[in-house]
User: Fold this.
Amino acid sequence: MAKNQQIQLVTFQLSGEEYGVDILRIHEIKRLKEIGITHVPRAPEFVEGVINLRGDVIPVIDLGKRFDLENKKVDKETRIIVVKQEDKFIGLLVDRVNEVLNVDKEAIDEPPREISQVNSFFISGIARYNERLVIVLDIGNILSPRENEELAKIAR
Amino acid sequence: MSAKVLVVDDASFMRLNLKNILESEGFEIIGEGTNGQEAVQLYQAEKPDVVTMDITMPEMDGLAAMEEIMEMDPQAKVIMVSAMGQETYIKKAIMSGAKNFIVKPFKKEKIIETLNKVLAS
Amino acid sequence: MENIDFEKFKKLFLQEADEQLEIMEKAVMQLEENGEEREIIDEFFRMAHSLKGSAGSMGYTPIANLTHEMENVLDKLRNSPGILSDDIIDLLFISLDTLKHLRENVEKGLPETENPEIDHLLQRFGEITSKDSEKKETDIDKKIYLTSQELKNLKEKNQEKNVFFICFELIHQKEMQSMVAFLVLNNLKDEGEIIKTYPPHLDEVEGDLPFFSMLICTEKQTDEISRVIGQSLENEEFKIYTLEDIENGKSGEYFQEVKESFSQRGESRESIRVDIEKVDQLMKLVGELVIDKERLLEISKGIKANSRDNLEAQALLQTIPHVDFIATELHESVMDIRMYPVGSIFKRFPRLVRDISRQTGKDVKLKFSGEDTELDRTILQEVFDPLVHLVRNAIDHGIETPDRREKEGKPSQGLLALNAWQEENNIIIEVKDDGAGVDPEKIKSRALEKGLITAKEGEEMDSESLLELILEPGFSTSETVNDLSGRGVGMDVVRTNIEKLDGEVEITSQPGEGTSIKIVLPLTLAIVQALMVREKGNDYAIPLSAIFETILVNKNNRREVIKTVKSREVVTWREQVIPLIRLGEFFQLGNSHEEGFLIIGGVKGRMVAIMVEGVIGEQEIVVKSLGDFMGKDKLFGEIPGISGATIKGNGEVALILDIQGILKSFKKGGDSVERQSTGC
Assistant:
């Protein structure tokens, strides 16, 4: 019974904070060094570029830039988390992938307005795990264009 | 004015046969070639009105000879003489400019008709 | 495994059978009501034929047998007009009921049992068709089939020329008849275009061929054609029919106009249904193969230079061209599988047209032609929305109300036609109405009013280019509701969508008589020839279809080639002055360079010179859409100048440049381009 109430979060590091994404959303995790990213001119700044994922061309988003966070330099820990959203694959560039956590659903709270540096538009909840707080991301909103984000801000 | 014909065939029987038929109808045989090379040389020397060209011959075959003649004289009128089963050669010849073809063994009327047609064109 | 597959096929079969039975039932009712109507009989026949085919391949013999007999009787109706009787109608009704019953049994998985009813039916059919059926069979086999659309296109495209249908019968010549045909064919090829022949591949037939026929389109007259044929035929019979003869049915039994894809019957094809996802997967794999093939070709260049003496390397070099060939062939075959009939989207329109007509109080008759014209599946999907828009516009703003039509002396019912056909490498889909049409003069004044053109430009434009203004963004606004401007609502969106598919929109219109809007589309998109160029460490692909020339720019010729006019850089090419765009600046990649290559490109007469650092070479590229991410309200937003992406030999992505988009963005935002260059 309790097991049914759990979800598995893949957690990663971004500018010092810990974030999580439902493991069911994740397709694979790649080392940045393994792939060449092609720059897309005139795309929004947070678009790192596009990569070839077994024949599909998919975008890679720099999550740090997306959230207007301080950017950590690319190093050997930098990873691309490939997530699936409405049949589309998208790569998320993160500072470091931490681990997989089994979190009770009950331990995930509604996102408070100003919990982190990140615009709550992108957050679906805050997970408590022992002493840690993990920010659970809303993949759908991360992938929506800037305008929607602005709209969401106004709505608030 | 009788038309000048060049007869090319490696078999002397066939040349004789054609010669008899054609001469009896008033054609003038201006040369007989026994292979492709001779055919080309004779054509150059005699400028016949029409050529009957056997396909299978030693040295140079009829197809190659016809092609060389066509190259020398794009207006040349060459009739291919072929045995059954040489469709592929005939097709090639027609595509390279042969005006018509006759199938061996042939009838006298067929030969005369074909020659007259080709000469009239 | 086999069982699962069989179940899948069975499900498909049942689905299709339902459709077929429904259409057949409708057809019998129409036959009963209206008598012998050729179109209905053809449709009926086609359905029976399809059902027979699928039942046969599934092993449902009773269904196959019964449909076979139905086919025969329908064929007889077709060939001997006037024999339709109540008896036959009855028989057809009973057969359909029996077929339905048999279909139920299939669904329930009941075994086939002896069925005296079927035997009885078969016998009755046999009685009707037995008379001289043997002769009919052979005659059918000798026909040239041409669809109504093909015939119509033939007429329209060749108004200046003659179309002849020529039948030959060889009576005297008994040997190598096929060679006589070949000779005639070869001679006639010099006189015009051979459109179709019986037998279909006349130039490949060998052996006996007492009868053959051909359809030729020529500038010559009958006597001239007759003379040419005479040169290669001795005492043999041939008949020449003109197009009018054909239409008046004088061409006899050897020529047949048919509806839609029935023409394929003569070639007796078999087909299977395949899940489209599997085809897409196949296409994807072929795409990867093409990429690897390009990579292999690249590698082989290196090997060639370095290893003359290495036997294995030489063997490899001999194998690679073959791989190249096979990959290309494979690609073409798969593309062919992806082709879908336009009819698959046309059939969604009757309902739509009825609804819009009702809303707008118009009376509209919808007609189709060319439904079996095929188009790449991806393109077909993308073209539906623009078509809906065009159809909506045509009814809403083109076709007048019944009252007004009557006042203007037109039939009160308006006509809306969706036509499709192929022209060389393009597929054309036309939305045509007989409504009010568009007046170029009114467009001119409106465009002036909107500031889209200057008075001087307006003077110089012909009516065609004036009509094209409808497609410009900002031509029309929703607050104006008169016929003229309403016609333009959203037309720029239509154009943008079609241009994304590498297509074009063409408008012709006669005030008072109607409007035709043609969507001209490429046959297929997925793989194109492109030139790979490099700028600031990035590779870009430019489709060759948009490139005219590549010019090297270095220290020596720089000043001659690139000039500055009114503070804008231009290039003179073949006496045209064309704007220069530096790719690096256009894409905001950094400082410009003074040496490199000019890619002279253009679309629809508008030219541009694009300056890049390097040219890598030509290669086949597989086009990958970025449509999921690029565009308004999408992740990347709109990115002018990029139409998609491709994967290079090394596995990395290269973006595909969109010359049209660059031109557009340059025209629209010429200033911004300038600003960028001063900013660098």
Observations:
- Strands of chain B lie at 4-8, 28-33, 50-54, 78-82, 100-103.
